[in-house]
């Protein structure tokens, strides 16, 4: 699942993180899980997370020494909402190939 359209006009890494978080919106992700999904080094991911948190697009929850990053409710599309179809052919291929 992809983040809502209004949140897609950001840096590529920000969008990749939001998309990954939206896919696991109910349980969230750790920084290490994000690192495994998003093709970027840990420093770039940290900077993107700082931007997303300052824009209130993510929340950070800690439980038992484990920090989980969750997407803000407004980022997650409604279940009946139509998927974003303005994805380019390159983006669809990149997504399918996991690049």
What's this model, at a glance?
The chain has 99 residues and is of the alpha+beta class.
Tell me the layout of helices and strands.
Blueprint: H1 12-23, H2 31-37, H3 42-54, E1 58-63, E2 66-71, H4 89-97
Describe the main β-sheet briefly: 2 strands, antiparallel
SSE pattern, N- to C-terminal: HHHEEH
What structural class is derived from the secondary structure elements? alpha+beta
Query: What does the average pLDDT come to?
Result: 85
Radius of gyration, in angstroms, nearest whole number: 13 Å
Beta fraction: 5-15%
Total helical segments: 4
| Cα shape | globular
Helix content: 40-55%
Description:
This protein has helices at 12-23, 31-37, 42-54, 89-97; strands at 58-63, 66-71. It is built from four helices and two strands; from the N terminus they run H-H-H-E-E-H. Strand 1 and strand 2 (66-71) form a beta hairpin. The longest helix has 13 residues, at 42-54. The chain is globular. The chain has 99 residues and is of the alpha+beta class. It has a two-stranded antiparallel ribbon with strand order 1-2.
Descriptors for this entry?
99 residues; alpha+beta; two-stranded antiparallel sheet; 4 helices; 41% helix; 12% strand
């Amino acid at each position: 699942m992809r983040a809502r359209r209004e949140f897609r006009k950001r840096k590529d890494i920000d969008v990749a993180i939001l998309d990954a978080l939206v896919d696991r919106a109910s349980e969230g992700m750790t920084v290490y899980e994000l690192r495994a999904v998003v093709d970027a080094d840990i420093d770039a991911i940290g900077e993107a997370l700082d931007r997303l948190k300052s824009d209130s697009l993510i929340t950070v929850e800690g439980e038992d020494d484990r920090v989980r990053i969750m997407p803000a409710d407004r980022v997650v599309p409604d279940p009946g909402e139509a998927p974003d179809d303005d994805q380019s052919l390159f983006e669809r291929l990149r997504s399918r190939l996991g690049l």
